[in-house]
Amino acid sequence: MKNLLVFCSAVLLFGACSKSSMTASKSASSPKAEKGWVSLFDGKTFDGWKVGKNADSFKIEDGAIAVNGPVGHLFYMGPVNDHNFKNFQFKAKVMTLPGSNSGMYFHTQYQEESWPKKGFEVQVNNSHTDWRRTASLYAIQDVKETYVKDNEWYTEEIMVQGKKVTIKINDKVVNEYTEPEGVDRPKDMADRKISSGTFALQAHDPKSKVYYKDIMVKVLPD
């Protein structure tokens, strides 16, 4: 009987330890909690987002934002960091259909219509007639190479630290730009300067269709 009790106690202790170990492992594997990433899109609604003209260019399909239609921009206006980001990491899973063009803006601000004047656009384009390809810092430091294919999900990430912008495709750095001190832009690009602001997704034209999901941000210290 004594041996049986010892055996049972050992089994119970092993079970408790195993459960504890599994719980710890599960907790450690949670990237959102461990790495500080915060979701900006719930996959179901446009809560926290705002679009002006041509709002119909943005729809939710199967947990993703489907962008397709006349020129429009969907701005993040939600509570995370009061929608004002200076130093950060921003990423999204993206899929382009053939011939499509779109973009992700940062350091921008809400604008009712037309192309945002403030901030920068990071290009999303794998086969559109515009030669500036995915990961271009549009008209500032462009990329001619194509790193990903249409009809396939990929991850596009933007990191800003101080004056440096780093753009990754599927965790690979493909574009790095450091803004010079006292940079002087042409008049029509006067507000394309490192500052702070929010993010926006671009509807480029009715023939372009692009999907975005798992939109995340990690705020970095100043």
Description:
- Keywords: Signal.
- This protein is an alpha+beta fold and 222 residues long.
- The protein has one domain (46-181, 188-219): Jelly Rolls (Sandwich).
- It has helices at residues 2-28, 31-35; strands spanning 38-39, 49-51, 58-61, 64-67, 72-76, 88-96, 102-108, 120-124, 154-161, 164-169, 172-178, 198-203, 210-219.
- The strands form 2 sheets. Strands 1, 3, 4, 6, 9, 10, 11 and 13 form an 8-stranded antiparallel beta sheet that branches. It has a 5-stranded antiparallel beta sheet with strand order 2-5-12-7-8, with no helix packed on it.
- Strand 10 and strand 11 form a beta hairpin.
- The longest helix is centred in the first third of the chain and has 27 residues, at 2-28.
What key attributes describe this structure?
222 residues, alpha+beta, Jelly Rolls, 8-stranded antiparallel sheet, 5-stranded antiparallel sheet, 13 strands, globular, disordered N terminus, DUF1080 domain-containing protein, signal, hydrolase activity
Secondary-structure element string: HHEEEEEEEEEEEEE
- Compute the number of strand runs: 13
Q: Identify low-pLDDT runs.
A: 1-34
In terms of DSSP E residues, the strand content is 25-35%
What composes the largest sheet? 8 strands, antiparallel
CATH topology: Jelly Rolls
CATH superfamily: Exo-inulinase, domain 1
Determine Rg (CA atoms, Å).
Answer: 22 Å
Roughly what percent helix? 10-25%
Quick check: average pLDDT? 89
N→C terminal distance: 66 Å
